[in-house]
Amino acid sequence: MKQVPALKIDGITIGQSLAIIEYLEETRPTPRLLPQDPKKRASVRMISDLIAGGIQPLQNLSVLKQVGQENQLTWAQNAITSGFNALERILQSTAGRYCVGDEVSMADLCLVPQVANAERFKVDLTPYPTISRINKTLLALEAFQVSHPCRQPDTPAELRA
Amino acid sequence: MQVGKPILYSYFRSSCSWRVRIALALKGIDYEMMPINLVKDGGQQFSKEFQALNPMKQVPALKIDGITIGQSLAIIEYLEETRPTPRLLPQDPKKRASVRMISDLIAGGIQPLQNLSVLKQVGQENQLTWAQNAITSGFNALERILQSTAGRYCVGDEVSMADLCLVPQVANAERFKVDLTPYPTISRINKTLLALEAFQVSHPCRQPDTPAELRA
């Protein structure tokens, strides 16, 4: 697929972030990243798919290259605002402390990076108070900090935390 | 409490809706179909009623067991967890990972780049090339992946969620006049799947909202 991420684990290589995460969940089940209840699991997957399938692919690097430099910002902003308009409404029924109830789930793993993209593309987040609140709560957790783009081995010096 | 049949909001030609129709057919789940025309009246998915049901303003959406689920793969995984036979995901976690990877490649990596709302944005004169590029990029990767995963079907010899994604995407490829010669594995598997009843009854040409001129 010529894309990241790819994970080499247990003798196989998996592409597609959500397929990787579901494999990790099935083989290393604790702590959970998907709730036990099927209806809540459906909400987690719906939110994850909305972001991973409905927003990010429309504003990733290869698509932005195709729309041309003068159109890129508007294009990315449109993709994100359309998706966030829907997500903000959905979260109003599913969210507790986090995207779905009060446990961190795969949906939260999708939310934070997408909000970071939104900030990079200068999307106004005022219309999205639930998204913003959950994002802030999640960013305080250690796993979201150690994994942050500003703390990676390949983070350029000028962007390093 | 009286529980009615599940209700599927679908458009005959929507490849995402077709995936769910196949799943419902394979699992023998009886349901009511509510057609949502994505083109008529400026797009019925934008109506206030439909938006209230599914804020994503997209099909498919499935009303089942007192909840409404959007996103075709989330729907299919819910059906799998609550109506587990026949299986749509293998038992082995590594094979499940292959099924999900292929499904996500199609549902997240190809289809969203060539759906109706994106094509509207690229403009009419660019639409065909844009859609063809999205599909060929994705199919180039998929053909290679299938060479390691495929048996009779996308992953081994059992029909899985990956197959439910493949057939509708090949139909899109044909609609956008993509040359399928470089993809013999995709073509073979597609042909084998189309012979199965669930893929036939769910076909766009046989839906309640299929226009007369496209009806089988």
Q: What does it look like?
A:
The complex is a heterodimer of chains A (161) and B (216). With 161 residues, chain A is mainly alpha-helical. In chain A, 55% of the residues lie in helices and 5% in strands. The mean pLDDT of chain A is 97. With 216 residues, chain B is α+β, with helices and mostly antiparallel strands. Chain B is globular. The chains are: A mainly alpha (161), B alpha+beta (216).
What are the main properties of this structure?
heterodimer, A: 161 residues, mainly alpha, two-stranded antiparallel ribbon, 7 helices, 5% strand, globular, B: 216 residues, alpha+beta, Glutaredoxin, Glutathione S-transferase Yfyf (Class Pi), Chain A, domain 2, 2 domains, four-stranded mixed sheet, 9 helices, 50% helix, 7% strand, Glutathione-S-Trfase_C_sf (chain B)
CATH architecture of the largest domain in chain B: Up-down Bundle
Q: What amount of the residues of chain A lies in strands?
A: under 5%
Structural class based on helices, strands and sheet pairing of chain B: alpha+beta
Query: What share of residues are in beta strands of chain B?
Result: 5-15%
Pick out the low-confidence regions of chain A: none
- The figure for the number of domains of chain B is 2
Radius of gyration of chain A: 16 Å
Helical amount among residues of chain B, as a percent range? 40-55%
Q: Please give the oligomerization state of what you see.
A: heterodimer
EC number (chain B): 2.5.1.18, 5.2.1.2
Keywords (chain B): Cytoplasm, Isomerase, Phenylalanine catabolism, Transferase, Tyrosine catabolism
Family (chain B): Belongs to the GST superfamily. Zeta family.
Pathway (chain B): Amino-acid degradation; L-phenylalanine degradation; acetoacetate and fumarate from L-phenylalanine: step 5/6
